[in-house]
Specification:
- By secondary structure, the protein is mainly beta.
- The chain has one domain: OB fold (Dihydrolipoamide Acetyltransferase, E2P).
- Strand 4 and strand 5 form a beta hairpin.
- The N and C termini lie far apart (about 35 Å).
């Protein structure tokens, strides 16, 4: 069974591997990022460590939504570093069997998209499954580890 953390972002239901989640915090204001890239919303200060906050809305070709008072920051482990994303509402975890995750690259033309990686269904809800490794492009990952 695969276990995913589920959350909503601008009415989109998203699932990501629970093993990638380091922590979840109530949203706070973040600072301008030292990394100037369209996919970065700013930096989140976690006990003195500046963690880049990614714009997941770009995967759906939409502008980032407003951060609400009840939004949350989900900090993710990525290789040797950490990144953060915004969630409007963290729902919890679900478990699904691997055969219940449909890989979008299997049904879309090659190179059509990197994320979302797939789709899954749980309790009559459809979730986009994100692939943590492909959240960043190679150039951005190099900047994070510079």
């Amino acid at each position: 069974m695969l276990e995913f953390l589920t959350f909503e972002l601008n009415e989109t239901k998203i699932a990501l591997p629970v093993e990638a989640v380091a922590s979840i915090f109530e949203a706070v204001a973040f600072q301008p990022s030292k990394i100037e890239r369209p996919g970065i919303l700013g930096d989140f200060n976690l006990h003195g460590e500046m963690i880049p906050v990614l714009n997941l809305d770009r995967h759906w070709n939409r502008e980032p939504g407003a951060i609400k008072l009840d939004s949350q920051i989900v900090v993710l482990r990525l290789n040797d570093g950490r990144i953060a994303i915004i969630a409007d509402d963290v729902k919890g975890t679900i478990k699904v069997s691997p055969e219940n995750v449909i890989e979008l690259n299997a049904i879309l033309p090659e190179g059509a998209l990197k994320n979302p990686h797939g789709l899954t269904m749980h309790d009559n809800e459809i979730y986009y499954v994100l692939d943590i490794e492909s959240l960043l492009d190679a150039r951005l990952e190099d900047l994070l580890h510079a």
